[in-house]
Amino acid sequence: MNFWPYHSFEIETPLSVNEIVAALNSDTEPFKWPRWPFLAPEHHTFQGVVSMEGFKIYRIPDYRNSFLPIMHGSYREGQHGTVVSVRMKLHPFTASLMCFMYCLASAGVLICVIASIIVGNAKVLLEGFPLVALSILFILWAVSNAFFGCEVKATRPVLESILLGSRKSGG
Question: In the 8-state DSSP scheme, what is residue 164?
Answer without folding.
Answer: T
